[in-house]
Design goal:
Shape: elongated
Order of helices and strands: HHHHH
Radius of gyration: 15 Å
Largest sheet: none
Structural class: mainly alpha
Mean pLDDT: 84
Low-confidence stretches: none
Number of helices: 5
Number of strands: 0
Length: 148
């Protein structure tokens, strides 16, 4: 994998984290459950940290990072998931919100797994992505446990 391909992969993950942040932000705006909102805020901060770490690596690779705060990818799996969340949140039903957020977390996990499938990832990038993936899986499991 050359630097250009690696930068594109990392930028895709920046976009995924932007999608995740926007989804949680919308969920907080449309939801009155204080417990969920605290959890969603924590997950927004988590994605902001992931996004920053990814951008740091992109810069080290002499690449151009996508706009960290606004860039999303309309074709990304996560974006479609968050569209579903935004639609579902309007009902303000806790189970519906959690189900939709869990779906979005599934998509984020899948995107990281796809990135990690590339055998040519440098070891330090692979370690970073594995760390992010572990935390994403924990977030997903937390959502699933709240729903059940």
């Amino acid at each position: 994998m050359d630097n250009e391909e690696l930068v594109e992969t990392l930028n895709d993950l920046v976009r995924i984290n932007n999608d995740r942040i926007q989804g949680f932000k919308k969920s907080i705006e449309d939801n009155e459950d204080a417990q969920l909102n605290d959890l969603f805020r924590h997950m927004m901060v988590q994605s902001q940290q992931f996004r920053s770490e990814l951008a740091d690596h992109i810069v080290r690779l002499d690449g151009s990072a996508v706009d960290e705060t606004t860039s999303t990818d309309l074709s990304s799996k996560v974006h479609r998931a968050w569209i579903d969340i935004k639609a579902a949140v309007t009902g303000k039903n806790r189970d519906t919100i959690l189900s939709s957020v869990e779906f979005g977390e599934n998509a984020a996990v899948e995107a990281y797994e796809d990135a990690l499938d590339d055998e040519d990832l440098p070891a330090h990038i692979k370690t970073l992505l594995e760390s992010h993936l572990s935390k994403l899986r924990a977030s997903h499991d937390q959502m699933a446990s709240l729903r059940h």
